[in-house]
């Protein structure tokens, strides 16, 4: 199952353990937070693409999948190598262990889910740590 498919099957509630694939960026003032609360998919996609650039290289460029998953209070974006998106050949894939990028609508937080624990657990942890509900 791809990270995008796995993200689609999870319910939204959490955050991964801090680590090399987890970064948070937050809105700095109340007007920016209000704007982000009304964030649409193209705005979230731009944040996710910017985040992914930090992991990409000229030798192995990375790209977001064309579709995303809207979890009411966040979006998730699957990603892989640009080559894999063009060929769908598994030898061009990043392989297991990479999760989708999460963009929280209300705060602008951007981070990457890891392959374990489950996406649901990671999302629930994030929601609990930030005292928010990510699902309706």
TrEMBL record:
Residue intervals of the Immunity protein domain: 43-119
Positions of the UniProt region annotated as Disordered: 1-42
Residue ranges, compositional bias (Low complexity): 21-31
Biased composition (Basic and acidic residues): 32-42
Bias (Polar residues): 1-13
InterPro entries assigned: Imm35 (IPR029082)
Name the record gives this protein: Immunity protein 35 domain-containing protein
Taxonomic placement: Bacteria, Bacillati, Actinomycetota, Actinomycetes, Mycobacteriales
